[in-house]
Predict the 3D structure of the following.
Amino acid sequence: MISRTIHIRGLVQGVGFRPFVYRIATREGIRGEVENRNDGVFIIATGDEDALDKFEKALRDEAPLASQVKELISEQSDNQDYKDFSIVKSNNISDAVTGVSPDIAVCEECRRDMFSQAHRVDYPLINCTNCGPRFSIIKDLPYDRPNTTMKSFEMCPECRKEYSDVNDRRFHAQPVSCNNCGPYYYIIGSEDQRTGIRDICLAIAETISKGMIVALKGTGGYHLICDPYNDKAIEKLRQRKGREGKPFAVMSRDMDAAKQHAVISNEEEKLLSSWRKPIVLLESKDQLSELVSASLNSIGIVLPYMPIHYLIFEELETSSILFTSANLSDEPVITDDEIAAEKLKGIADLIVAYNREIYNRVDDSLAKVMAGKAVILRRSRSYTPAAIDINCSTEGIFAAGAELVNSFAIGKGKDAILSQYIGDLKNEASMDFYRSSYKLLSKLFRFSPLATVSDYHPDYLSTHFAEELSHEMDIPLFKVQHHHAHIASCMAENMLDEKVIGLAFDGVGLGSDGNIWGGEILLADYKEFERVYHLDYVPIVGADKISEEAWRSGLAYLNKYYPDKSAIYALAKDMGISKERSALYLKGIDKGINSHYYSSAGRLFDAVAAITGVNMVSTYHAEAPMRLESVIDNTEKGFYDYSLESGIISFGPTIEQITNDRLNSVAVSRISARFHNSVANALIEAVGEVAQLSGIRKVVLSGGTFQNSYLTSSVYNALKKYNYNVYLHSTVPPNDGGLALGQMAIAARKLSTI
Ligand code: ZN
Ligand code: FE
């Protein structure tokens, strides 16, 4: 007999870890005890050496799905005599903090209990130690019921018994509840607050099938639901919500139903059915109303993740529903019941709530598979606030993020904790959300800022926030160039700490030279970067309107690269721009009025979308590049010319040839494919040049342009073929939603050398 102490750090609370330890200890004949501490789980284990080894292996290999064992420190200790194995009372011995679990989709066992457990038949908020709400209901640590929004619900004797029984699946499941004692759903405005859940689901199903709209309170915010086959219902929803063209997601009853709407690979199937249940962007099969995906060739699908979703499908005739966040245009998703009653009245015909507060707002997460790898595009429900270890002290660093699709980060230990998806900070309500989320996360993680880091851009509201914080607290503020932060973000999540070739391609980011960047090849590590290649600068007029009005980039690119001016006017007319207006616009470029220099991939894609007539004016962010990708003919292998010269990648020849193809009525699907192939070729050739000069073979891809599946896969596969080590994002988005991680990684290295 020998004894060991085992200290496990990581995400080990609120995920059923102690009962799991108890189960495997009993199985392997181990005696001793396990306890929860602020900084993790602490075990004393006594047994044969062989059994102890097996026990430790099982601790890693069989850990609960949502848990994350980051560090397991096992040490010999004096032999200690125990009669059995037990779970002992929590002991808070330090201010160090262990991870907070994200929300977890309802598990299979709980779904079965909805049929078989007398006090939980049809209970629509059923949960256990392996599933249910976590981050959305937590107010403070440690994760105990009084620190959650379950505080006001007293457990009935039956639930209490399960909660206290170490052999029960609901042992210390903080949100444990049932039909007798837990929160319940109700219809807002209905007299009878306790209508049975079956009646509520029937009312939901009837409302949907009549072509009307339902608002339903979800895990981290309200959703709007309607029939995805009914054009009129969707039109009504678009109109009422003020959402013109942006695609909607659907929720499908199960994988078979999902496969009716989309082509689904094994990797995508895994992502769809994972416990995180993100919305997954897939290649669509055109079974639904065209209005759902707004004529794009992709569709976002999510599988049910709350118990009530399954109950609703039991009453529905269709196997899919349109499923979108309940917010007004660009505001954050609604979480509050009173606000829902007031603001959703004009949108939804039926509003269904439950009487438990959502404390932390979390929107649905969004992901897709590119080059065979799952990549997150919007990181929120079921991901936040999982920590990301960046292998360098981050303690006290606040990283402000960027402006669009914002997410900020706070540093604890060696971890970066990214906030949930906040949104576009220019929207006042989103900026309020940013401030309040900063307060909530700071309290939850016992965070006190020692340094701040922001983007270069002086007008980003996140930059202002960091400046104010640094001023108020009298702490340093670091400013990091946008594309350097993108590359650092992808490096950090891939645990790279050396010089790499970084491809940072996106819409906008302020460059070190005062111009607008977004087509950059950098030689970078965390400390510094060198801009070795960039897209040729093009002057474009229109400032704030440029990213919405692709025709502006179209005319600017033609002006710079197309020799025949009369053809430009003809094309402008095709774009719906009168001769007078285009003449005025071109004059503006010549005179440099309100114009800026762009080396931006986003603008290049906009220009091609406009010249080919695919998209002139966007109704949502990045619509033009998305439409351009959407029309690609995959069988087309041709490409256009480009040039690489003294650090500049010019797509001048590409633009000229595209314009000629367009004037010769070549199919847009082929032009788009050739264009994408040309961009991929140019990047691969430029990487080759840089690799030859620098001897570096590690290539990192980041920035919003690498949400384009076709381009990302082409570049990734080609570089792999040439034996480069290529790194993509996976746990944080390639878009600006992942920027805070890069800012933090850079600031952490700066601080470590001070
Ligand atoms: Zn469960
Ligand atoms: Fe960016």
About this structure: Residues 482, 486, 506, 509, 703-704, 736 surround fe (iii) ion (ligand 2) (CB under 6 Å).
